[in-house]
Write a sequence for this structure.
């Protein structure tokens, strides 16, 4: 008799557990499987850091609040991939702002990994050429390394023929940070405006309905 | 002696005109420079090159009075990281076409001494292995 109860109890428990597992996976799989670049589940919360913007204000994890942030790492003496990515981000930003279906605020941040040559004036000049709302950020080498390291965006000073001084090897990806300061997405090159915009909308839509 | 001197003269008269057209058989089209942000000390030039001749052509150097330094470069992305490499020469087999385009091969223009602003035209010379050259006009375009 007791044995029978135990068995049926186990069956109920097993079915219940299976049902739960089924509903969790279904919910997550449907949402995330087809958004390439979304870092989910368990996105990393960005640890406190201290950099500064080109107008001299502090730039810390608190600056991610109230909007979604796209970050690109580069340096102003980079002639090819940096201006080409910044031009893409400018188009994206303008389309984002003019699309009535988009209700989430977006901020574009360019992080210079070359603080030695990119002083605040140079950096401000550079980012505002692309868009007056874009934010230029830099800091000392250690703080930059720690920040970039958290986003998997390590950079390196290199010597290269044809370049006086040095160049920087740097991440070619665009990084998405949520208002909660979680590192939630990564867009790998090649960067296409329509593709980034479509994925970004879906990522933000999904993450907005979810507790990070 | 006289005969061999004559032979050399004939040889030269045949070779020189041939050599003079060598770099001209490299057809350069869509030549443009991305307008750099005002604070930038570098710019990138792009073009399509096609060898329309019947022999291999090698572009060995690029020169221009526009900038302190001009060279051929290539951006590559390895493990998500972008880096630039120097290209020593550009070899083109007959009918071969090569594109220098954003996020790939580019002319690296360092230290401009003339304004590289939208709607300006910058002359850049392509030098081939045999010493001949061809001047190409690059149009400066703003892309954003
Ligand atoms: Cu380059």
């Amino acid at each position: 008799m007791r044995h029978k109860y135990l068995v049926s109890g186990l069956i109920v428990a097993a079915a219940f557990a299976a049902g739960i597992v089924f509903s969790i996976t279904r919910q997550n799989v449907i949402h995330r499987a087809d958004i390439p670049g979304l870092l989910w589940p368990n996105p990393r919360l960005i640890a406190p850091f201290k950099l500064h913007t080109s107008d001299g204000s502090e730039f810390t994890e608190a600056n991610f609040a109230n909007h979604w942030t796209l970050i690109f790492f580069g340096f102003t003496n980079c002639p090819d991939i940096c201006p080409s990515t910044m031009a893409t981000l400018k188009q994206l930003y303008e389309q984002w702002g003019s699309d009535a279906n988009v209700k989430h605020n977006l901020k574009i941040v360019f992080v210079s990994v070359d603080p030695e040559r990119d002083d605040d004036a140079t950096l401000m000049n550079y980012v505002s050429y692309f868009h007056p709302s874009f934010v230029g950020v830099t800091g000392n080498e250690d703080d930059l390394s720690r920040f970039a390291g958290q986003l998997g965006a390590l950079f390196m000073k290199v010597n290269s023929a044809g370049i006086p001084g040095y160049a920087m090897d740097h991440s070619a990806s665009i990084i998405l940070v949520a208002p909660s300061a979680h590192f939630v997405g990564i867009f790998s090159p090649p960067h296409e405006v329509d593709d980034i915009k479509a994925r970004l909308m879906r990522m933000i839509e999904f993450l907005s309905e979810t507790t990070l | 002696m006289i005969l061999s001197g004559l032979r050399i003269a004939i040889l030269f008269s045949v070779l020189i005109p041939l050599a003079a057209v060598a770099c001209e058989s490299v057809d350069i089209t869509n030549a443009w420079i991305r307008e750099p942000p005002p604070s930038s000390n570098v710019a990138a030039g792009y073009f399509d090159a096609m060898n329309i001749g019947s022999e291999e052509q090698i572009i060995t150097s690029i020169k221009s009075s526009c900038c302190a330094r001009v060279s051929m470069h290539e951006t590559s992305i390895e493990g998500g990281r972008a880096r630039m490499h120097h290209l020593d020469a550009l070899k083109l087999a007959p009918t071969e076409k090569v594109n220098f385009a954003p996020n790939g091969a580019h002319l690296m223009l360092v230290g401009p001494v003339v304004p590289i602003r939208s709607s300006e035209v910058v002359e850049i010379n392509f030098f081939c292995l045999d010493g001949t050259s061809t001047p190409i006009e690059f149009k400066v375009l703003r892309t954003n």
Remarks:
- The mean pLDDT of chain A is 88.
- Residues 107 and 122 of chain A are 20 Å apart (CA to CA).
